[in-house]
Amino acid sequence: MTTPLDTEEGLLRLGLRDRWYALCPSRYVRPGELVRLDRAGEELLLWRDASGAVHVQEDRCPHRAARLSLGVHMGDRIACNYHGVQVDADGVVASVPGSPGCALEGRRALRTFPAREHAGAVFAWFGSDADAEPAPLEPPAPLVGDEWDSFLCYVEWDASHLLSLDNLLDPMHGAFLHRNSHTMFTGKREAVFRIRDTDTGFVFEKTDQRGVNFDWSEWVDHGGLQWVTLDIPYPATAGPGGPFTIVACVTAINEHQHAGFFWRCREVTGWQRDSWRFLYKHRLEARHWQVLEQDRAMAEAMPDDAWSRENLYQHDIALVRLRRMLRAEARTQIAAKADRAGHRVPATR
Fold first, then answer.
1. Is residue 278 in some structural domain?
2. Considering the domain boundaries, does residue 343 fall inside one?
3. Residues 187 and 313 in one domain
4. What is the pTM of this model?
5. In terms of domains, do 187 and 317 share one?
6. Which keywords has UniProt assigned to this entry (predicted)?
7. Residues 157, 305 share a domain
8. Residue 347 pLDDT > 80
9. Are 217 and 115 found together in one domain?
């Protein structure tokens, strides 16, 4: 059973509102096809119009709530297969073939989520107010501009998205879980960490080691998009371009599954970019998948009540910080929604 989205716990487990969320790789939404996805507590339909623009809407016919994803793609609109009701990209009912001229025609009756494509992925804005304008989508620097190159690695794991966030903000596990990998076999197996605040979040870093192993990660919440950035040093055999940068976004599918987007980036141009792309596809990609597979196995094996069984120590202060931040924002959003509705609900602990 899914925790309701209109509760603090629901927002924590399924995703805050007023945020951009990555939904799937762009290649998943092919022209002329209808794609059904569950993301961040919403049941979604994705499709492209005749111009190729992607649209994200509720997977629900305004007539009888049948699945539009089982309908017919008509180029600039979708026809429900149940009674033929046609809905356009703005969520307006364009035609009711069974009852022309009825009151349903011309009504905006289907929620439509603002959608963008960037760096090979489809993003959608999940607003607390369905009619409000979204914040501008401002992707991380390694995904913008010509001085960087990246590959998108997409996964779906049978684990809460919160466990992936814990993993990304836990640099110390690199020296243990990934000790036998091609990039994290050196460095100390003990460390003291600190949190350094930034304008958009915080950096969690080792105080006595940098550029040796998985030594730091950064949490960013900016422009309505949340992500984690981290660096992994590359050996000389990996070619030019400096460290291997990962930009990660995670999106809840439901309370027990999530989609992960890991952009594997390197600051390279010209011939160095060509060299990096060749080495990545022919030597490095398989090794990176092996490392990610170790994380998947660990996350999927975690019990549902893992947080209630923990005994945390100094290495875990970033986890505590982020959990408190997310819960506080969830509480604020629930209170704001109650205010808009004209009443308050008591905050949970």
1. yes
2. no
3. yes
4. 0.94
5. yes
6. 2Fe-2S, Iron, Iron-sulfur, Metal-binding, Oxidoreductase
7. yes
8. no
9. no
CA dihedral 88, 90, 92, 93 (to 10 degrees): 20
The separation between the first and the last C-alpha atoms of the chain, rounded to the nearest angstrom, is 21
Count structural domains, the chain. Answer: 2
Does the structure show a pLDDT above 80 at 346? no
Q: Amino acid identity, residue 216?
A: W
In a domain, 320, yes or no: yes
Structure tokens at 39: 């993301």
157 and 302: one domain?
Answer: yes
Q: Which residue has the tokens 């982020």?
A: 322
Closest CA to 20 of 137, 152, 120: 137
Six token digits for residue 77: 């609109």
Of the given ranges (41-50, 139-148, 154-163), which has the lowest mean pLDDT? 139-148
6 domain-assigned: no
How many angstroms separate the CA atoms of 125 and 225, rounded? 9
Indicate the angle between helix axes 285-300 and 161-168, nearest 10 degrees: 120
> What pLDDT score does 2 carry?
74
The pLDDT tens digits of the residues spanning 79-129 come to: 999 999 999 999 999 999 999 999 999 999 999 999 999 999 999 999 999
151 is in which domain, residue-wise?
A: 141-326
Q: What is the pLDDT of residues 176-227, one digit of tens each?
A: 999 988 788 888 889 999 999 999 999 999 999 988 889 999 999 999 999 9
Q: In whole angstroms, how far apart are CA 89 and each of 36, 103, 245, 338?
A: 16, 19, 37, 30
Q: What is the DSSP letter of 79?
A: E
3-state secondary structure of 322: helix
Which single residue is written with the structure tokens 């998943």? 28
